[in-house]
Structures are given as C-alpha cells and as structure tokens.
Amino acid sequence: MVVDKDNEFLDFAPLLDQDSVLEDSNEDEKLPLPQLLAKIIAQRGSFLDISEDKLKEEIENEQLSKDAASNQGDVEMEAEPSFTQEQLRSYEDFKKVKQEIVNSVHSALNESSLSLDFVSLLISCVRPAAGSSSMSPHLKQHIKIGSLSSDKVDPPEDTEKLQLDTSKVGRGWKLESLERAATNLKSSSLRLKEEVAKEKNFWSGMVEVLKSNEVITSMNIKNSKEVCVKYGYGDAGSTYYDKGIGILKKDTTTGNLFFENSAPAKEEKQDKIVNVRIYEKNGENVNLIGESNVEQRLHTFKEKEGVINEIAKARFFLFEEELFYQLLREAATLISLQVSAEEDKIVIDLHDEIIEITQVVPEEVHAPADLPSNERADLIQIYLRLMLYAEHKRNLDQRKIPPLALDTEAQSAPQTSLLSLIRPIIVYNRHERTLKSVRDVLESIILNHFENDRTKTKEHLAEHLKINKHCNESSARSKDPFARISTPPASILELATTSLIVRVKLTSLFASAYSVMNLTLQNQAGSTVLDVTLNDVRELEDCLNWAIRNHDSI
C-alpha cells in the first residue's frame, strides 16, 4: 500500500491537540500561587466582582458547552469516513518519523551555532568585547579572539571600459574647467572695461579741473589721503577761518568726478547770499524804494552743471559768507554811527533813508520789483564786494613786505586789520549831506542879498559858486578808487559876492564821520579878513551873516 507522505502527520493531529490541552492544564496547576492569581486576574478581572452565584452560573455554562462539544464531536465522528487498518501507522513508525524531525532540528541548531561562531569571530577582530560575548566556549578555547578578519574585494572590471569611462570623465572635467575659465575671463574683461570707463571719466574730470586753473592738492582726512581742491581766498589775502578746501571724489557707480565740501561743521551749513534794500523815511513811515538784483547772480549756476560749476558755486557762497561775516564785525563797532546788527541783518540809518543788508537763502531769491533806487542798491552791493576784494589785496601786499631784522631796536607796533566796508558809506553820505547844507546856506545868503529874487540868485550861483570835491587827494591816489575811498573826503566851496570872496573848506573825519568847516573871507584886494574853523552849519550861517553885514568894519 502506498501512503501519501504529505499527509502522513495528519492522522496524529487530534492526538497532538489533546496533548497540548493537557499540557496547558498541567502547566496552570504547576504555577505558584502568586503567578496563578495574577493570571486569573488578567483573564477574569478583579476578585471584587466575583460572587458565588456568578461562579455557579459560569460552571453550569461551561458544563453545557462541554456537553454540546461532545455531542458535536460524536456527530463528526459519525460523519467521518472510516479508515482501514492498513491506513493507520503503527506506533513504531511514529517514533521513527519523530526521531528524523529531532535530528533535523539538531542539525539546523549546529549549523546556526557554527554560523554564529563565524560571525562572532569576525566581529571580534573589530570589537573584541562584542564578539567574545556571543562566541561559544569551545571556540574561545581553541581559537584566539580577533584572529579572523575580513576585507572588501572589488571584482575586476573591464580595463578598456574603465579607460573609456575615465577618459570621458577627464574630458568632461576639462570642458567644465574651460567653460568656467571662459566665463571668468569674460566677466573679468567686462569688469575691467567698466573700471577703465570709470577711470577715464574720473581723470577726464580731473584734467578739466586742472584746465580751469584750480589748485589741486592732497590732504589727510580721517587717516586717509584725499585729492583736494582749494576754492577759498586764502592765497588771495583772505583771513577768514574757512580756508575753502574741498574733496574731489570718484563716483563708485559711474566714475564721474564730484565735489564735496570738507569743512568740518557741527551742523549743516546753508548757502546764503548778501542782499541790499533801501528804505525811504517819511516821518514815521518807511517805504521800500530799492532792492538789489541777486537772482541774476544765481542764474549762472543754474544753467551750468559739472564739477567746475560746483567748485565755482562753493567759491561764490564762501565769499558771500565771508562778506557778511566781515560786515557784522564792522557793524558791531559802528553803534555810535546809527548802525544796528542782528544775526542775519544789518541796518544803517542815514538820516533820511535806511540801508538794510541781509542774508537770503537761494530758494527765497526772487526778481525785485521795479523801484526807483534799484540801480543804487545794485551799486551798493557791488561796492561792498569790491571793498572786500580790496581788503584781500591789502592783506596780500602786507605779506609781501619783508620782515624787519631781529636786531632792530625800534620795531613798529603790529598793525591791526580794520576793515572799512560800511564806514565809507556813512562818512561820504554825511559829507554829501553837509555839503548840501553848506550850499543851501550860501544860497540863502545870496537870496537875502538879492531880496528874495530867485532868478538872480540862480544866475549868480551858477556863475560865481565853485564846488571842488575831494580836493585833498593827490593825483596818484585819485587814480586808485580803493585808495580814494579810504581817504577822508574834503570839499571846497568858493562863492564871490559883491564885496567878499567866501571860501569854505569842508573836511569830514573818518573816525567819527563829523565834518569840520574852515571859513575864509577875502576882500576884493585879496587880503584875508576872516579865517575861522567851525563844527556846525548853523554856526557857519550865523558867522557869514555877521561877516556880510559888518564886512566894512572887519
């Protein structure tokens, strides 16, 4: 009889299942009491919920389930087909098969132990502690720990293919390097081209500055050497504290040359320009009759651009700043001459009119209205600037004078620089006013002589009155207007009457602006009958009236 080997263990399955149930029940009985209690609590819960009625009910249910299972087993046994005796194996065959299974298990266990020893011996070469912990005692006794090692061995590759791949990689690296080098060279050339363009713009601007006769110098500013330009008036004789030195810098974007003021200031300095206004006094009312035109002076800077224009603009506003500074200094010493000074305004009271000198921000400059004395205001502002130029020239001339020897006993006292910008205006204005008053006195005398006949008076004055202004100037000084303006004015009025020749010499004092009048009377024979010095026009009038009335008895 041929038996199917695949189903040779199926006949013993019920026996194995029964044995397993028995073994489970036996194991529960062998467990100690604490473990058994823990197992019961894990399966059935706490003993607090267990009662006698529940246990009885559970036992009855379990008995009923066993009865039902036995009945079902009987039914299955009845339904199963009956086997012949030949199909059942004997107990000896079962033992034989069991022995074969046990041998196979032992063989597998030995092979796994050998594999574990092999792996442990390999590990012991790198990590002795970890390898020896899993090694068998027999292996430890006969083989030294760490005596077996391993290494990775790559399989041999195809030489031609390897060379081909290597050459491809090399060519790729070369191409990549060439492309990177080409890109770097191209970017470097573009950068150099931009730098060359920037340098060209910078040096073109520098050449333009040199061609405009500007003074280029170098100066250490904040521990760095900078290219600077002198736009001040220090070399022209100015003694102003701001020497006017600016920095010429290069724009980092375009390379263009631009100008930057280097004067250290605590607060930002605002550009201002000197403006002159003339007011007329009518009692207590003051009316504007003239204003200088400074818009035209600023218009030249608005039309031009570039570093040359920036330097010229800085020079212009530096001169305006120095001019007003010197005017303020002088005005502080002329309070006795009806001059008042404020922070940005100087007021000169000239008896019948007021001259106001102010500083104006360029943004507030506008074209003046059409006033009768605009031209005179323009002339006054031109005069102030010319006088500052003359002061610079005088300081420059003094620098050219060689110093005295050190062994000279008599050394002259150092001369202090006293600017005279406002004082000549006051002195000459008062001189002209006094001259007009003296002429009015002479006219009133002739008018009284002709018994208020104005026609004869005008004809006589036109024929016999001679006025010689600035008679005390030499021919050499009269050619120099700056020297003439610094000389005290003197004028001579000579009038011939029927019996006397009246000669008045009017000399103004430059320090006090007062006038001294020297009156001289001569008869027809040419001899001097009276020579007196007077200080007031009223005294002159009284003296003349007395002299004409009593000229026969003098």
UniProtKB/TrEMBL annotation:
A single Gene Ontology CC term: mediator complex
Region annotation (Disordered) ranges: 62-83
Signal peptide (residue range): none
Keyword Zinc: no
InterPro entries given in the database record: Mediator_Med17
Any Pfam family the entry gives: Med17
Zinc listed as a keyword: no
Listed Gene3D superfamilies: 6.10.250.2620
Compartments where found: Nucleus
Keywords: Activator, Nucleus, Transcription, Transcription regulation
Example of a GO biological process term: regulation of transcription by RNA polymerase II
Function: Component of the Mediator complex, a coactivator involved in the regulated transcription of nearly all RNA polymerase II-dependent genes. Mediator functions as a bridge to convey information from gene-specific regulatory proteins to the basal RNA polymerase II transcription machinery. Mediator is recruited to promoters by direct interactions with regulatory proteins and serves as a scaffold for the assembly of a functional preinitiation complex with RNA polymerase II and the general transcription factors.
Cited PANTHER family: MEDIATOR OF RNA POLYMERASE II TRANSCRIPTION SUBUNIT 17 (PTHR13114)
Family membership noted in the UniProt record: Belongs to the Mediator complex subunit 17 family.
Complex formation: Component of the Mediator complex.
Protein name (record): Mediator of RNA polymerase II transcription subunit 17
Gene (UniProt): MED17
